[in-house]
Amino acid sequence: MHPAKSVILFTTASGAGYGLLFLLILGHMLGVIPTDQTLALSGFGTAFILIVLGLLSSTFHLGRPERAWRALTQWRSSWLSREGILAIVTFLPTGIYGLWWIFFSSSEFALLPLIGSAALLLCCATVYCTSMIYACLKPVAAWHNKFVPAGYLVLSLSTGALLLNAILHLQGKNDQLFDMLTIALIIIAVVHKFYYWQYINENTAQSTVGSATGLGSMGKVSLLEAAHTEANYLMKEMGFKIARKHRQKLRNITFIFGFIFPIFLISLSGMISNATLSNLTIILSILSGGLGIVTERWLFFAEAKHTVSLYYGAEKV
Amino acid sequence: MTCLPQNGSKKKLGLVIDLDICVGCHACAVNCKEWNTGGHSAPLTDIDPYGADPNGVWFNRIHSFEVVDDDNDSRTVHFPKSCLHCDDAPCVTVCPTGASYKREEDGIVLVDADKCIGCKLCSWACAYGAREYDEDVGIMKKCTLCVDRIYNENLPEASRVPACVSTCPVGARSFGDLGDPNSDVSKLVAEREGFDLMAELDYKPTNKYLPPRPKQNENTVSDKPVSLSPVETEKAGLLARWADKVLSL
Predict the structure, then answer these.
(1) What local confidence, expressed as pLDDT, does residue B224 receive?
(2) pLDDT tens-place string over residues A152-167
(3) Closest chain B residue to A64, measured at CA
(4) Which residues of chain B have pLDDT under 50?
(5) Minimum CA–CA partner of B47 in chain A
(6) What residues form DSSP beta bridges with B175?
(7) Distance (Å, rounded) from C-alpha A158 to C-alpha A164?
(8) Which of A172, A179, A167 is closest to A274 using CA atoms?
(9) Could you say which of A61, A79, A230 has the minimum Cβ distance to residue B55?
(10) Are A311 and B81 inside 8 Å of each other by CB?
(11) Interface mutation vs chain A, best among B119, B123, B126, B140, most A CBs within 10 Å
(12) Distance between CA atoms of B96 and B56, rounded to whole angstroms?
């Protein structure tokens, strides 16, 4: 599948944003992270910037962005529509929670646990809807499986944790508990990724060129002559091949930059007593994790094969 | 509204394509382009049509496949493919705007050009590659089953069939109601054991394909020489054997 830059930015940035919101609010509700305004302002600020950036970017790949509002109408059947609506609804409880924390945290607010719980639920639901946009597509075997929603949720949390960990570090509020939690989430993400890669290596689509043409029972089917001389929309959109050529290298980049370096750098920063050096290591962990997650998402799109390739020379997908 | 008609559509207009007859002349694709570039989803934009990298919207494309059986005997099958107007059409349900819809009255799947935002998700949901994105207009287009011909009272009745069907010079394409078991097309499908493409996905395509018939001269075909080799000397004619002897002296 063609890896559109806008969609990669959308899924990674908004994913990390929802993960960050989730951990901030959960941490605050459980009383395990500091409660000061600076943390709230920087945490909610970063999350909302990432989410808004992601949502705006998702409209860039539209043919008619001025009609984007129409995408909010078909929640009964469309995961994309559900995602759009939930993304907007989620701003409400998360926004109220953030505003209360920043401006009114000295006063009691009886509804806060309720609003917090709604925010946690909606963050997960929005990321789940994003994943289902892809996981509901039967023609793409690499996406149409249970690993995909799980992966989006886990990676949203691990990238959110990486961000929150960095914010805590840069404000000198880090503790070992959160370092450990971040590392644990990254380890869960990498284990999931390995199982996913193994799954898509071993499971190709049920459809073959034989079933796509219905001629499979007569013998071995292969494309003799293409329908046209030049590439068309379908081949450009669904027949993307570069990632498959460099698949292993890209997986290694994802593994090393997305998972190994961040774990190493977070551990390292805990051992460095010099604040500047420690902060530098944490900034590096963000940059490395960012490169890793973007490569991961690029690969997620680019290495997925679509059944339409069966009409353009592929024997299986 | 992108929910599918609740009880499915009773009438299911669609095509039956006979892979035994199709000669791969591409006339159906050409006439489709000709009609539809002025029809319901007009224009079928071409980008750089006379340049080095032409690219354009076509609702119908003809792929040619080779099938090689266990005896290493091969045959060519020309394979026209356009929208199959699936009963369970995921291109409709994934649409976030309601632009993509399936008509309850005849099962035709269409795109409302005024609502489409060009997100391309429907083209990802279609297993068959029936959706065609128009870069120029920024919206998705697709086969309309010539909805602007089949009900068109300005046309003589015989012409009220999709452009691809009307132009096929060998009669490989039939049009009719596949929801009615007594229609000509349904009978044809039953008689020739017509099949669904990628039935395993359960999209329930309306369009059916008829398989190529077995080769009629199968017995003579199986006796064919496996490879060509020079005629053996003992089996050659009298004159040739004499010449061979003389020249071998």
Answers:
(1) 62
(2) 999 999 999 999 999 9
(3) B117
(4) none
(5) A232
(6) B15
(7) 10
(8) A172
(9) A230
(10) yes
(11) B119
(12) 25
> Angle at Cα B88 formed by Cα B85 and Cα A213, nearest 5°?
60
The residues near A219 (Cβ < 8 Å, ≥ 6 apart) are: B67, B68, B69, B70, B73, B74
Closest Cα in chain B to A217: B69
Q: Which H or E element spans position B110?
A: strand B109-111
B169 by Cβ neighbours in 10 Å (0-12 / 13-18 / 19+) ranks as exposed
Q: Evaluate whether B142 touches B130 at the Cβ level (below 8 Å).
A: yes
Q: A187: how many CB neighbours lie within 10 A of its CB?
A: 13
In A, which residues are within 8 Å of B132 by CB distance? 232-234
Our CA-based measurement puts residue B40 at a distance from the nearest CA of chain A, in whole angstroms, of: 19
Q: Report residue B226: phi and psi, to 5°.
A: -65, -40
Nearest to B97 among A70, A213, A222 (CB): A70
Assess contact for A103 and A157: CB atoms under 8 A: no
pLDDT > 80? residue A76: yes
| Mean pLDDT within A60-80 | 95
Model confidence at A245, pLDDT cuts 50, 70, 90, reads: confident
CA distance B45 to B224: 49
Which domains are seen in chain B, by residue range? 13-222 (3.30.70.20)
- Cα–Cα distance between B13 and B185 in angstroms, integer? 10
Share of chain B above pLDDT 90, in %: 80
Contact between chains at B61 and A228 (C-beta distance less than 8 A): yes
CATH 1.20.1630 fits A5-312, yes or no: yes
- Where in chain A are the domains? 5-312
Q: Which residue do the tokens 């750098």 mark?
A: A265
- pTM here is 0.92
**CB distance from B81 to chain A under 8 Å?**
yes
Instruction: Kindly report the nearest CA distance between residue B136 and chain A, in angstroms.
Output: 9
Alpha carbon of residue A69 to chain centroid: 23
Contact B11, B180 (CB under 8 A): yes
Cβ contact A161:A19 at 8 Å: yes
Measure CB to CB from residue B94 to each of A65, A78, A212 and give the nearest one: A78
Provide, as residue numbers in chain B, all residues whose Cβ is less than 8 Å from the Cβ of A223.
Answer: 63-66
3-class secondary structure, A261: helix
Judge contact between A74 and B96, C-beta under 8 A: yes
Taking the CB of residue A175, how many other CB atoms lie within 10 A of it? Answer: 13
Q: What is the tens place of the pLDDT at every residue in A287-298?
A: 999 999 999 999
How far apart (Å, rounded) are the C-alpha atoms in residues B167 and B145?
Answer: 14
Rounded to an integer, the average pLDDT of A180-197 is 96
Q: What is the pLDDT of residue A148?
A: 98
Nearest Cα residue in chain A from B127:
A139
* B61: β partners: B81
**Given a cut of 80, is residue A242 above it in pLDDT?**
no
Q: How far apart are CA A129 and CA A81, in angstroms?
A: 9
